[in-house]
């Protein structure tokens, strides 16, 4: 250390002298302030000083806003916001918190529901803003109260109030809605004795397991996705938010499997209706009112379930004497007459004989897409081989099977049966080849008849009349 720098530092005695002089000046000033300045003026000056500093030093308590979202209001009406928060928090809490409350709502229910434990908090950052969640209920001593209140608290900095109210909460609501749909059990409702009965849909068919040309599958999935996104569009053009599909093809080609695949894909319930159970237009209208949103109404075997009285000639007599149900009743519904009863509806008609349908049913705007479920093709077969035998790529038997499928009409249902018989892939495919050759011999079919053997999905142009034979 140089002598120069030692000389530049003040000595301890000098520092002490300066401190003593400063403190005596402050004391003098203080005494003078108290003696000369009137008490009211003193208080005013001090309050100004304190307010000045308060505004500059952040006060955590004052800058935080807490939103309370109660389970029900003072009249015990349940709060939709709370329910949505519950769903959202179940998902968030499961992945981030250290303490969770879990429930199993019934012995049958497969799912465990999770929620935040009392006074446990979790935080998340939304658009750079930290938001802390807590789940609370009334104090322990009030537990005897049967109307015990539960609520969520959201804490965040006050300056972000607009963002939280106008953007974060709508975001949470949308997320909760999607989570609810994704985790819900899909129900199959069937109509009989004047009411709908419901069961859990056990059909595990998905687009992945469905034997169908990949491009056609994609076209249908794209159409479904587009349909879901177009709520505003349907509203703007003043049309019912619905989509109609006609599935046609021989028995065992997968019409019911496709309905289940659509339901599993969209998480929509299925309402399965046999027209012979519908007594009249009136009953039809009422039962349609019992159908929830986000659902698929399936009318199976539309060609043979009932002879619908023709709208103009009334020529065909209903099979059942008591049946007063008319084709126009059905068409009115499809045209959206009862659209005010609900949203997000898909209507599916299935038939083995498209040529027997009243042309009015095939008019554009009624059924938006006609889907031909045909006999098995090689691409469809590969899907079945992957599902049933776990053959993910090629197999040396495929070439021979492709040739046979080119000349033998066989349904996916028949082939699926064959593939389930034997576990060993080589043996199983050998047995399938024998089955196809045997069928070829039995039917004496050398070439396919006139019907198009490929899968066919056709979007019906809205403006044009369609010729059913051309589809
Ligand atoms: N395209 C397919 N993809 C996958 N599996 C299929 C397909 N078609 C049929 N199957 C199998 O065959 C069974 C019967 O098929 P499904 O009931 O879906 O045919 P369908 O065309 O509705 O028959 P129907 O006209 O007699 O009601 C299904 O459970 C499934 O195992």
Automatic annotation (TrEMBL):
One BP term from GO: response to stress
PROSITE patterns reported for this sequence: AAA (PS00674)
Entry keyword tRNA-binding: no
Stored InterPro entries: AAA+_ATPase (IPR003593), AAA_N_dom (IPR025753), At3g28540-like_C (IPR058017), ATPase_AAA_core (IPR003959), ATPase_AAA_CS (IPR003960), Mitochondrial_chaperone_BCS1 (IPR050747), P-loop_NTPase (IPR027417)
Pfam family, one: AAA_assoc
Domain AAA+ ATPase: 241-377
Protein name as annotated: AAA domain-containing protein
Species the sequence originates in: Heracleum sosnowskyi
């Amino acid at each position: 250390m140089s002598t120069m720098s030692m000389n530049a530092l003040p000595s301890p005695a000098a520092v002490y002298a300066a401190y003593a002089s400063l403190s005596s000046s402050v004391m003098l000033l203080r005494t003078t302030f108290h003696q000369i300045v009137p008490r009211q003026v003193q208080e005013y000056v001090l309050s100004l000083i304190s307010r000045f500093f308060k505004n500059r030093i952040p006060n955590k308590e004052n800058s935080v806003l807490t939103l309370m979202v109660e389970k029900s209001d003072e009249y015990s009406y349940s709060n939709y916001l709370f329910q949505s928060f519950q769903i959202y928090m179940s998902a968030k809490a499961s992945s981030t918190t250290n303490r969770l409350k879990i429930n199993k709502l019934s012995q049958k229910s497969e799912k465990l529901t999770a929620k935040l434990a009392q006074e446990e908090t979790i935080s998340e950052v939304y658009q750079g803003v930290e938001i802390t969640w807590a789940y609370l209920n009334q104090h322990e001593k009030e537990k005897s109260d049967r109307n015990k209140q539960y609520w969520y608290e959201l804490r965040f900095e006050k300056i972000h109030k607009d963002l939280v109210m106008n953007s974060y909460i709508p975001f949470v609501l949308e997320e909760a809605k999607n989570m609810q749909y994704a985790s819900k059990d899909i129900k199959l409702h069937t109509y009989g004795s004047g009411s709908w009965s419901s069961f859990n849909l056990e059909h595990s068919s998905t687009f992945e397991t469905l034997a169908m040309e990949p491009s056609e599958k994609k076209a249908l999935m794209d159409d479904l996705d587009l349909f879901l996104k177009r709520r505003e569009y349907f509203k703007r053009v003043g049309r019912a938010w619905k989509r109609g599909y006609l599935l046609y093809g021989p028995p065992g080609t997968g019409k019911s499997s496709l309905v289940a695949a659509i339901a599993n894909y969209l998480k929509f319930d299925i309402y399965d209706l046999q027209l012979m159970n519908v007594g009249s237009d009136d009953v039809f209208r009422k039962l349609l009112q019992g159908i929830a949103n986000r659902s698929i109404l399936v009318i199976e075997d539309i060609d043979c379930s009932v002879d619908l009285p023709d709208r103009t000639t009334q020529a065909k007599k209903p099979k059942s004497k008591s049946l007063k149900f008319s084709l126009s009743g059905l068409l009115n519904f499809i045209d959206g007459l009862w659209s005010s009863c609900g949203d997000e509806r898909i209507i599916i008609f299935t038939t083995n004989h498209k040529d027997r349908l009243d042309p009015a049913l095939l008019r554009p705007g009624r059924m938006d897409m006609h889907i031909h479920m045909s006999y098995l093709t090689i691409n469809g077969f590969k899907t079945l081989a992957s599902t049933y035998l776990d053959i993910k790529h090629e197999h040396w038997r495929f070439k021979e099977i492709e040739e046979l499928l080119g000349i033998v009409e066989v349904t996916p249902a028949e082939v699926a049966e064959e593939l389930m018989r034997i576990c060993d892939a080589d043996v199983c495919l050998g047995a399938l080849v024998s089955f196809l050759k045997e069928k070829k011999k039995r039917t004496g079919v050398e070439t396919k008849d006139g019907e198009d053997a490929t899968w066919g999905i056709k979007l019906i142009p809205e403006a044009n009349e369609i010729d059913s034979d051309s589809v």
